[in-house]
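Action item from last meeting closed. Structure (363 res):
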């Protein structure tokens, strides 16, 4: 069987492959960074400034993953005729190449499809998404590395070649196919990037979450879903900080700090908002604790995956880390964490614990 389409050429495959490799590398590195921030080993540290850094890295993670979808489809279209080549295996190196393609295609499709469903918060599966997504990211990037190593001579030859006769074809030309691929990838990015890039929102028709939530900020988990409505609204609520206890009125009587900070979710959306509350260094000093201590933040929510978070000393010493009482000039509503929540600069949204009950100071 012979394939004469303009898309089925080494030059097309190599060019698309380069951009697909760049997209996967950005997606992998930014995803690895997000994982380390959420599950930090002893050697890893993450700064509190600049306040927008995680917003950018996680936005790049999601946008590069979305761009990779049309690029992957175009790449597979450009090379699929080789699947019909005979013999199926010509040498050990050829077998390694075919095996890497199988693993690469399977892991890449899994990562991109499940990642897209995660962005939409649609989970038609029984496994824990972050754990499997992280594990298969290593499988995908490893198979890409093997594939690139095997194909590098062909890629270099294809990219250096200045002219190549167009194959006879009644369809798109080679340049037409490449332009269509770039257009599809660009359209996918523009249509969705408004979730994290504010100035793209007017033209980003498929963006999600942005500023359409209550009090101008999206809500991933409501107070009802967390099972904290009665406890959060109770007049008996108190906040424990070390050996001190504060009522909400006492917190409101402490010096208040107002700051514009973004909240950036692992799903890629982000939104800047004006938060008002007690600066954590001020709160710790009021409780007789030195700022810079490691602090465990415990929520009223029980049993949730993110009912507790840990604030490293870098953040507890930063005056922009707030125990927020107000959002955009209004008292926090229940879904945004009333009676108080943590807002720390340059942190994932899942670590910005809501409905705070206790701050545990590590020795």
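Sequence:
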């Amino acid at each position: 069987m012979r394939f004469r389409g303009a898309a089925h050429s080494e030059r097309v495959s190599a060019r698309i492959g380069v951009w697909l490799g760049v997209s996967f590398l950005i997606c992998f590195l930014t995803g690895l960074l997000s994982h380390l921030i959420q599950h930090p080993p002893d050697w890893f540290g993450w700064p509190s400034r600049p306040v927008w850094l995680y917003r950018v890295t996680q936005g790049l993670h999601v946008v590069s993953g979305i761009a990779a979808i049309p690029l992957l489809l175009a790449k597979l279209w450009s090379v699929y005729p080789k699947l019909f080549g005979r013999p199926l295996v010509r040498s050990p190196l050829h077998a390694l190449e075919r095996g890497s393609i199988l693993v690469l295609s399977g892991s890449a499709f899994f990562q991109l499809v499940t990642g897209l469903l995660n962005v939409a918060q649609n989970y038609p599966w029984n496994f824990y998404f972050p754990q499997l997504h992280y594990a298969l990211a290593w499988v995908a990037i490893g198979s890409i590395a093997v594939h690139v190593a095997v194909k590098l001579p062909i890629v270099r030859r294809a990219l250096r070649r200045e002219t190549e006769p167009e194959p006879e074809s009644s369809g798109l030309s080679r340049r037409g196919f490449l332009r269509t691929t770039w257009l599809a990838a660009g359209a996918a990015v523009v249509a969705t990037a408004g979730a994290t890039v504010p100035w793209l929102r007017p033209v980003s028709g498929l963006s999600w979450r942005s500023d359409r939530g209550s009090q101008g900020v999206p809500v991933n988990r409501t107070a009802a879903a967390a099972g904290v409505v009665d406890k959060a609204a109770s007049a008996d609520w108190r906040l424990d900080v070390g050996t001190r206890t504060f009522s909400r009125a006492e917190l409101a009587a402490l010096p208040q700090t107002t700051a514009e900070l973004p909240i950036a979710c692992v799903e890629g959306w982000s939104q800047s908002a004006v938060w008002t509350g007690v600066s954590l260094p001020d709160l710790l000093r009021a409780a007789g604790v030195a700022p810079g201590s490691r602090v465990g933040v415990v929520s009223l929510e029980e049993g949730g995956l993110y009912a507790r978070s840990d604030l490293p000393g870098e953040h507890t010493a930063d005056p922009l880390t707030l125990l927020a009482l107000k959002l955009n000039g209004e008292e926090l509503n229940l879904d945004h964490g009333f009676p108080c929540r943590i807002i720390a600069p340059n942190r994932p949204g899942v670590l910005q614990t809501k409905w705070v009950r206790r701050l545990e100071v590590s020795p």
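Note appended to the action item: The CA atoms of residues 1 and 84 lie 7 Å apart.
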